[in-house]
Amino acid sequence: MAKKYTVLETWIVNTAKPVESNSAEQTYDRVQRQGGGKLPVIDVPIEYSLEEHFMDEARIRDFAAHMGGAQDILDVGPGDGWPLLRIAPLFKAVTGAEPSQRRVDSITAGVEKLGLKNVTVKKVPATGLDFPDNRFDGVVAATSIEQSPDPYKAIDEVFRVLKPGGRFRVYFEPSEGRERELAEGLMMTETEDSLGYHYSLKHTRPPWERNYLVKFANTPEMKEEFRKLRDLIERIGTTPSANPEVGLQFLERNQASITGASFYELEHFTSETMKETMEDAGFVNVRITWSAATLARSVWPRLKDSALTDVQAQAICAGLAELSTRLEAPAGIGEPVVGTKPA
Length: 343
Ligand SMILES: C[S@@+](CC[C@H](N)C(=O)[O-])C[C@H]1O[C@@H](n2cnc3c(N)ncnc32)[C@H](O)[C@@H]1O
Prior knowledge:
Elements (H helix, E strand, L loop, with lengths): L6 H10 L2 E2 L2 H6 L22 H16 L5 E5 L7 H4 L5 E5 L3 H14 L4 E4 L13 E7 L8 H11 E10 L10 E9 L3 E10 L4 E10 L2 H17 L11 H6 L4 E10 L3 H11 L2 E5 L3 H12 L6 H17 L10 E4 L3
Parallel strand pairs: 1-10, 2-3, 2-5, 3-4, 5-6
Antiparallel strand pairs: 6-12, 7-8, 8-9, 9-10, 11-12
Bound molecules: S-adenosylmethionine (SAM).
The site of S-adenosylmethionine has 23 residues, from helix 2.
């Protein structure tokens, strides 16, 4: 299928001449904190009376339940330590494989803050897991496989480092349910030497994503331009095609301050294509199962006024997670996938 280019990306390609990069370098080395710095336990105390926190606990229990008793676990692409730091108390040993140095530093700080003794983190991409064959009892990944420049190689690598009989539980950013065919996004970042204007395009079918970064000199004038841009975005939104004030007009006006640009492309998955890809890699008993968090969301309306104790909330989430290992979910709604390396 022919690729569609928006006016804004054509301008970026022709004028800023972006060089090829990847998500770890272009995005995750630049963002300050993922999840808005509000990850339960890691950033803020967990409060089971909040639906989001209850669902987070269910997701954590889901990873644990799907490991089927395994004790030495690899988390691929843990970002700021999710689920790595949250699952650590549930296993004997956990290891993170994360290619972004900034995220590795963030995990290291989290390990210290939480006083965890069984966490190791290594700066490696999923496409080149620097571990021996059959090294881990189980592997988990949360919205990281599809961030890899070659997600197929990443899944082959997961298969290689997993012990025979071990399971791989994978959550991904589902492309099911996206309404618009092409969705634009804008984000701003700041490092010591540059201000970053990030433009993304997500396509529904086939599911792909293109990301651009245009870097500007970090001067007082450009800082003021970025401040005004943030205000504008708050008022009119992040769709430069409909609002050139946050797109072409901004870039053209500040063209003289551009110091560099880069881009990367991603391929996204549906539950079905993730399942097929895992089967192609050699996994067996590959199933799309309900996420325990989806189950948690569905029981939440009945539980929210029950004044659950922490122990009760954890037990319910663990029960939902156990259920999620047995309950196949229909394809087409983006639920996570689990597979086993043949024994
Ligand atoms: C959307 S974030 C998810 C982080 C975390 N798992 C979570 O759910 O909060 C994607 C993560 O994948 C990492 N990543 C990017 N490329 C990767 C690769 N080739 N291998 C492994 N992880 C990668 C990024 O650095 C980032 O930390």
